[in-house]
Amino acid sequence: MKEFNKRKKFSKDFKRETVRMVLEEEQAVSDLAFDLGIHPNTIYRWVKEFRERGEDAFPGNGQLPPAEAEIRRLKQELARTREERDILKKAIAFFSRTVR
Question: What is the value of pTM for the model shown?
């Protein structure tokens, strides 16, 4: 039975150091990938993510970047506030009918 290669996991520091070597030391991605034993596309993806997100890049497995985490929190708060508002609207309608 053929075993599948497990997906390699790399630390945030490893990714940042690899990106730094590409951007600051101008090492060739193909050479660096060969030396590290990873696919060049992986390094290109890390460089792209670092350029897009800067210091927020590579938040970790299952972690959202701070900006996206804040957006998620605000959406949840908005949904809760809308639910509370709808409950209050129904209560006002109910009490205004029973008072008459």
Answer: 0.57
Answer CATH for 10-62 from 1.10.530, 1.10.10, 3.40.50, 1.20.1300: 1.10.10
Radius of gyration of the chain from Cα atoms?
Answer: 25
pLDDT > 70? residue 99: no
More confident residue, 56 or 24: 24
Q: Where are the domains of the chain?
A: 10-62, 64-100
Q: Is the pLDDT of residue 4 over 60?
A: no
Question: How far apart (Å, rounded) are the C-alpha atoms in residues 76 and 68?
Answer: 12
3-state DSSP of 25-86: CCCCHHHHHHHHCCCHHHHHHHHHHHHHHHHHCCCCCCCCCHHHHHHHHHHHHHHHHHHHHH
Q: State residue 3's pLDDT score.
A: 57
